[in-house]
Specification:
By secondary structure, the chain is an alpha/beta fold. Helices cover 48% and strands 15% of the residues. It folds into 3 domains: 53 residues, Glutamate Dehydrogenase, chain A, domain 3 (Glutamate Dehydrogenase, Chain A, domain 3), CATH 1.10.285; 134 residues, Leucine Dehydrogenase, chain A, domain 1 (Rossmann fold, 3-Layer(aba) Sandwich); 161 residues, NAD(P)-binding Rossmann-like Domain (Rossmann fold). The protein starts with a helix and ends with a helix. It binds glutamic acid (GLU). GO terms for molecular function: glutamate dehydrogenase (NADP+) activity; nucleotide binding.
Length: 448
C-alpha cells in the first residue's frame, strides 16, 4: 500500500467510527476518497492543513422538532434536518427532501454529493441539504401547509440569500416551496426572493427550473453519446421514476429522438414499448397526484408490471431517476448482458458501488449523478442571479444557459479524467474536477 493509500484509508476508518450507522454517507465518501487518492499522488499539497478531514466534516448540522396538528386534531411530531456542509465557494445550496426514509445519514450523503455537484456547475454555490422524515403521501393540502409552516418556523433563522438557500427534492415541489416561502416572508418581515429557489413564476421563480434536472440530464447524456459517436436517435431508453426529474428527462429524450420504453414509481413499473405519452404522465403525476396504474388504465399499449425489475428490459441507455441505491450490481450485469451501453444518473447515487464496478468492467459509459443531474441546482443558481438583479429571463435564454452549463460540465469532467490518466472514467473526472475548485478555495481561506 502506498503512503497516500494508507493515509486515505486511515481518514476513512476514522470517519466510519465518528459517523456510525450512516451507510449512505459512508458510500458517498468512499467513492470520492477513492478518486482523491489519484489527486493526492500527483498533488500531495491537497492533504495539507487537514483539508480532507475538514471536507468530510459538515460545517454545521441542524436537527429540530417539527410538531404539527393533523386533520383529525392529533399532534404529529417529525424531525427536521439541515446539514450546512461547505460554504467555501458560495452560500450553502441544496434541496429539502420530505420522505419517511430521511435520517441524518441520508441528508449527510446528499449534502456531501451536493458540494461537488455545485462546484461542477461553475457557479458560486456551496453544498447543503435538508429535509424531514415527514411522509406527504396521503396527506391533505392543509396538512402539508401546516407541516411546511412548522418546519420553516425553525429553519428560518438558519437560512438567507447569503447564508443558505434551500430548494426542492423528493417530496418537495412547487406547492411546498410556496408554503415554505410564505412562512419565511412572514417571520422575516421581508420579501427576500433569493432565500429559496424553485419558486412560482409570479413571485421570483425562474422559467426552466421545473424542467431543469430532467432536461439537463438529457443534455449531459447527449454530450456523452456524441463523444462516443452515438445519438439518441432510434435508441431504447429506460427512465426509472416518474417524479419531477423523470418526467422532464422523458420529455427531452423523446424530443431528441429516443424512445422511452419504461418508467416507474414506488408501487410498480410500466412498460411503454411505443414511447411515453408525456402529457398524460404529467396529468396523472403532477395534477392528479396518482399512482402509475392510472396512466396504464388510460394509455392503450402500456403494461403495468408488479414483478421483476425495470432493469430487466433490454435497452441502449438507462437513466435511473428515482432514488439512491435503486440499481445494484446484479441489475447492472443484466443491463450489460442485454446490450445497454450508456448509464447516466438523474437521481442522487442511484447506482450502488457494485453497479459502478460492473459499468467499469463491462465498458458501459457512465455519467454519475453529481455531474449528470447538476442541471437542477445550476438553474437554481440562475434563479438566484435573476433575483439578485430583480430580473426575469426568457425560456429560450435560460434553457440555452442550462444547455451550455451541461455541455461544459461534460467537457470539464472528460478532460479531468484524461488529465489524471483515467480517460473515459467520468466518476473520477467528476470527483476530481468538483473537488479541486472547493479545495483551492478552502486552502486560500485558511483553517476554518
Ligand atoms: N435537489 C436538487 C439536487 O439534488 C436541486 C437542489 C437545488 O436546486 O438547490 O441537486
Amino acid at each position: 500500500m502506498s503512503n497516500i493509500e494508507a493515509q486515505v484509508s486511515d481518514y476513512y476508518n476514522k470517519l466510519l467510527l465518528r459517523n456510525a450507522g450512516e451507510p449512505e454517507f459512508h458510500q458517498a465518501v468512499a467513492e470520492v476518497l477513492d478518486s482523491l487518492k489519484i489527486v493526492l499522488e500527483k498533488d500531495p499539497h491537497y492533504a495539507d492543513y487537514g483539508l480532507i478531514q475538514r471536507l468530510c466534516e459538515p460545517e454545521r448540522q441542524l436537527m429540530f422538532r417539527v410538531p404539527w396538528v393533523d386533520d383529525q386534531g392529533e399532534v404529529q411530531v417529525n424531525r427536521g434536518f439541515r446539514v450546512q456542509f461547505n460554504s467555501a465557494i458560495g452560500p450553502y445550496k441544496g434541496g429539502l427532501r420530505f420522505h419517511p426514509s430521511v435520517n441524518l445519514g441520508i441528508i449527510k450523503f446528499l449534502g456531501f454529493e451536493q458540494i461537488f455537484k455545485n462546484s461542477l456547475t461553475g457557479l458560486p454555490i456551496g453544498g447543503g441539504k435538508g429535509g424531514s422524515d415527514f411522509d406527504p403521501k396521503g396527506r391533505s393540502d392543509a396538512e402539508i401547509m401546516r407541516f411546511c409552516q412548522s418546519f420553516m418556523t425553525e429553519l428560518h433563522r438558519h437560512i438567507g440569500e447569503y447564508r443558505d438557500v434551500p430548494a426542492g427534492d423528493i417530496g418537495v415541489g412547487g406547492r411546498e416551496i410556496g408554503y415554505l416561502f410564505g412562512q419565511y416572508r412572514r417571520l422575516a418581515n421581508q420579501h427576500e426572493s433569493g432565500v429559496l429557489t424553485g419558486k412560482g413564476l409570479a413571485w421570483g421563480g425562474s422559467l426552466v427550473r421545473t424542467e431543469a434536472t430532467g432536461y439537463g440530464l438529457a443534455y449531459f447524456t447527449k454530450e456523452m453519446l456524441t463523444e462516443h459517436g452515438e445519438s439518441f436517435e432510434g435508441k431504447k431508453v429506460i427512465v426509472s421514476g416518474s417524479g419531477n426529474v423523470a418526467i422532464y428527462a422523458i420529455e427531452k429524450v423523446q424530443e431528441l429522438g429516443g424512445t422511452v420504453i419504461a418508467f416507474s414509481d414506488s408501487s410498480a413499473w410500466v412498460e411503454t414499448p411505443n414511447g411515453v405519452d408525456v402529457a398524460k404522465l404529467k396529468e396523472v403525476k403532477e395534477v392528479r397526484r396518482e399512482r402509475v396504474a392510472a396512466y396504464v388504465n388510460e394509455v392503450p399499449g402500456s403494461k403495468l408490471r408488479l414483478e421483476g425489475s425495470i432493469w430487466d428490459l433490454a435497452c441502449d441507455i438507462a437513466l435511473p431517476c428515482a432514488t439512491q441505491n435503486e440499481l445494484n450490481g446484479a441489475q447492472a450485469t443484466t443491463l450489460a448482458d442485454n446490450g445497454c451501453k450508456f448509464v447516466a444518473e438523474g437521481a442522487n447515487m442511484p447506482s450502488t458501488a457494485e453497479a459502478i464496478e460492473v459499468y467499469r468492467e463491462r465498458g458501459i459509459h457512465f455519467g454519475p449523478g453529481k455531474a449528470a443531474n447538476a442541471g437542477g441546482v445550476a438553474t437554481s443558481a440562475l434563479e438566484m442571479q435573476q433575483n439578485a438583479s430583480r430580473d426575469a429571463w426568457s425560456f429560450e435564454y435560460t434553457d440555452q444557459r442550462l444547455h451550455d452549463i451541461m455541455a461544459n460540465i461534460f467537457r470539464n469532467v472528460a478532460k479531468t479524467a484524461k488529465e489524471y490518466g483515467h480517460e473515459g472514467d467520468y466518476v473520477i473526472g467528476a470527483n476530481i474536477a468538483g473537488f479541486k475548485k472547493v479545495a483551492d478555495a478552502m486552502l486560500a481561506q485558511g483553517v476554518i
